[in-house]
Design goal:
10 helices; alpha/beta; single chain; 22% strand
Length: 240
């Protein structure tokens, strides 16, 4: 493995009150190398420069500690996980979390499985499929303490995909950028119908950047009606 300078990453971790062992930092470096290698033959990320990946993908993913007690043992599903942000990064940083990575593209799942095998991670599984399909009764519906997503979709649409996976009493925590106020207002009806409510909004910037982030702590108060999520395409075309 190349000799990477990790001083900035370690400084950023300290600024966000995150403590990683040398082994965990090494795991992130292996993840980075595999991401760049696989990205040459398939589209995983537009960001490939080392410092940017470490901050904008890895650090950003593991800032869940700003909104949630990551020291607890709990089950977490990352809906539309892509190249593993935030779910796989969360597993590396917080090994106590039991993670499920859900994505509709099989080649991304193959990449994630390769990284999981290489790093020797346990209590993490990948699921190939659409969010709408696995949220059905008898599958993964309402079986998780937490759902996370960094996917690019408006909050109404994302809530319809993610809240059905969360147990009553659990949380859906989307990662959002600065343009979130109007999204929250527009999603009020959807959250109510889907059984959730916004409990808290945590705002911060990533260290030494103007990269503005919001973590929304959405509490699941009651079961999601069985008709949600609707069939493929509708949540994005016709948000609740």
């Amino acid at each position: 493995m190349n000799n990477y300078n990790t001083l900035q990453f370690e400084k950023d971790l300290k600024a966000m009150n995150i403590t990683l062992s040398n082994k965990q930092i090494e795991q992130f470096l292996i993840y980075y190398e595999m991401l760049v290698e696989w990205n040459e033959v398939m589209n995983l990320t537009a960001i490939t420069e080392y410092e940017e990946v470490m901050k904008k993908h890895f650090l950003d993913s593991i800032t869940l500690n700003q909104a949630f007690d990551v020291t607890k043992e709990c089950t977490v599903i990352d809906v539309g996980c892509g190249a593993g942000f935030p779910g796989l990064a969360l597993k590396i940083a917080y090994p106590n979390l039991k993670i499920t990575l859900l994505d509709s593209l099989n080649k991304r799942i193959n990449f994630l499985n390769a990284v999981i095998d290489k790093l020797g991670l346990t209590d993490i599984e990948t699921v190939h499929g659409r969010a709408e399909d696995f949220a059905k009764a008898g599958k993964l519906r309402e079986t998780f303490d937490v759902a996370v997503s960094r996917a690019v979709a408006n909050l109404s649409t994302l809530s319809e995909y993610c809240l059905p996976y969360v147990k009553v009493g659990g949380y859906f925590i989307p990662y959002k950028s600065e343009k979130v106020r109007s999204e929250i207002e527009a999603a009020g009806k959807a959250l109510s119908i889907l059984g959730g409510s916004l409990e808290k909004k945590i705002e911060f910037t990533l260290p030494d950047t103007d990269y503005y982030r919001n973590l929304l702590l959405i509490k699941k108060n009651k079961p999601t009606p069985n008709k949600y999520p609707r069939k493929a395409g509708l949540p994005s075309k016709e948000p609740i």
